[in-house]
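Our preliminary data section would be incomplete without showing what the modeling component actually yields. Below, a chain of 462 amino acids is followed by its predicted structure, encoded as tokens that our downstream tools consume directly.
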Amino acid sequence: MDKNGTALALLDEFKDDPNAQAWLWKDHTGYAEAAQITQLAAKEHPEYLAKCGGIYSSEWFFSKILHCLRVDPKVFDAAYTWVEHADYMTALLTGTCDPRIIKRCRCAAGHKAMFSDDWGGYPAKDFLCKLDKKLRRLYDTLSKKIYAIDTAAGSLTQEWSKKLGVPAGIPVAMGAFDAHLGAVGSGIREGTLVKIIGTSTCDMVVKAKATRLADVPGICGIVDGSILPGLWGLEAGQSAVGDIFNWFVSYIQAGGKDAGSHDALTQKAARLRPGQSGLLALDWNNGNRTILVDQRLTGLLLGQTLHTKPEEIYRALIEATAFGALTIINRFEEYGVHTKEIVNCGGIAEKNPPLMGIYADVTSTEMKISRSAQSCALGSAIAAAVVAGKAAGGYDNFAAAQKQMCGVKDITYKPIPENVKVYQQLYKLYRQLHDAFGIDADAGRLANVMKDLLSIKERANT
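Predicted structure:
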């Protein structure tokens, strides 16, 4: 945005420049800049990396800005500051878009911009200047204080009151990312892992501030109050889940338009037994967010023959995302973040029972579904109710609001023991591929994988 708080994309000069539009998380063109940030931080400020999994990602704040500076300096020079969408929207609703007064949310600043109270806020000015001297100007526009969702960003303006049909002057809660609010709307608490499953997947857990919490390598951050105020918020996730299935349906179009639809492939895939196809895939079609944090990784399908059918590939892709989910759960467990229950939300969790069944079998854990079909919106409503307060018909705290407003559906998906056994075998092979391609190719002896897949396939078809 410029000095007046106007998004550059709304100015005639920049309306046709894609670099002046919103930069989406899933754009990974800043991978080289992310690597540069990681390298410099590892050398001079390893504490910056410790809270964001050890590697800075191309999905995050500074890597995108630095990339813009290099590929389109005209846009960079025209921008007075850069603001996360979650902060821009609350500023717009409250008439506080002036960059000098805009409030920035704890969720975005902590998870994507390396903000921490431990080192006084954002990364030091001299650190950013070593990346590029022009970042000095950006640093000077960043606020020294950030806010959790129990804080009001301001009051609703008359203009937006008319547009939305709600009273002017009501408090507008600070924003957060959709996934984090989805966790709130799914009733997140200690011991509950919330999976927000859509085009990508985010995995959310919270821990008490009194907990001695280890830094967890490969996750997307440990941030004080990023999900629920007063608790540590931990985020992990997969860069593509639904996008992988959509790629297969929309781009590959195996079997034709009707036979190759999501519904048709899901129905056929559901009739297959675990291991029956002899296929194994890696879920890296959009890189790996957790636990490798490497956007230069790509997808893989192994085991196909001249008899391989589209629904077998579709199921293998679902299984790959489930194996990726299990890898995240295991990483949390490894560092003392234990899961007692898993609650899922998002479009795929709502609409795809066979996928939920596969996830239950792969993780050997019951899959519960958030009661609300719009858990992210519900989480935002909960924040609004808490900011409004009990006197205005809201709630005193998030625990009280969640108790009243959250729940899970009656239908759950429980693991089937015989399926769990097969998936335990397949997961060992998945991890073999995962580690060989993602960590150390020289250490990955892969000669057994194809033959082991065939053995599992033969047993499944007996």
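The longest helix spans residues 310-334. The chain has 20 helices and twelve strands. Preliminary results of this kind motivate Aim 1 of the renewal.
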